[in-house]
Amino acid sequence: MSERFDKLVNIVKRLRAPNGCPWDRKQTLYSLKQNVIEEVFEFIDALDRKDIENIKEELGDMLLHVVFHSAIAEEDNLFNIDDVVDGISKKLIRRHPHVFGNVKVNGVDEVLKNWDEIKAKEKKEKPKHYLSDVPRGLPPIEKAHKLQKKAAKVGFDWPNADECLEKVKEEFNELLEAHKNKNKKDIEHEIGDMFFALINYARLSDIDSSEALRDASLRFEKRFNCIEDKLKEKGTTLNESNLDEMEQLWQTCKQKC
After folding, report:
1. Three-state helix/strand/coil letters over 206-236
2. Range of the domain at 248
3. 196 and 232 part of one domain
4. Helix (H, G, I), strand (E, B) or coil at 160
5. Cα 209 from chain centroid?
6. Is the dihedral of CA 167, 169, 172, 173 positive or negative?
7. DSSP 3-state percent helix, strand, coil across the chain (nearest 5)
8. What are 113-162's pLDDT values in tens digits?
């Protein structure tokens, strides 16, 4: 394993060398942010499809980014891959005192509670506000969920999913009012509030909002593909069809997938 990992590190360094690849040499510590995000979502897609070969490949792509960013940082005398590996190893040991120390825990909830407490002590500077350490770069659904979950830890939460659902209805009515007035800014505002309320409701119902939306997107894709296939069977295409025909086929496809 060590030899293979070292080989990967050396390949990346070769790509970054003066006589290496122009594209790889051009990259900075900050230029590949979008690439990293795309790789993570491609990994998630492979997980959703339970595609083991693709999962393996996407893990490799993510590992490449860890090694690549570390190589760039080493060139700038900031840190190197050994520092990254050493850092995460020490963090795992620190945050699992029930495994590597003498702390006793009863179940997952206590593990998570200890993790948060240890993490808070590790921070050198106290955040300006309680929610300040929720990463700004998270995708919107994940950020909303984390903000809500953290606020709930200090008691700022709906008593139950039923009461939160009433908030969803309230936000929907406000969206209808904004739609009636045709005020784009108000519509945008109310859509945001409604999304936020729905994510809250999902959280209190023990449902992962991202997974729910991902599943809905996959259902839509399958049904739309089904429409396209049925049109091909009829010797026509999407562009040659019309909404009435596609809606009729949608209802048929909906029963299958």
Report:
1. CCCHHHHHHHHHHHHHHHHHHHHHHHHHCCC
2. 211-256
3. no
4. coil
5. 11
6. negative
7. 75, 0, 25
8. 888 888 878 776 666 788 988 888 888 999 999 999 999 999 999 999 99
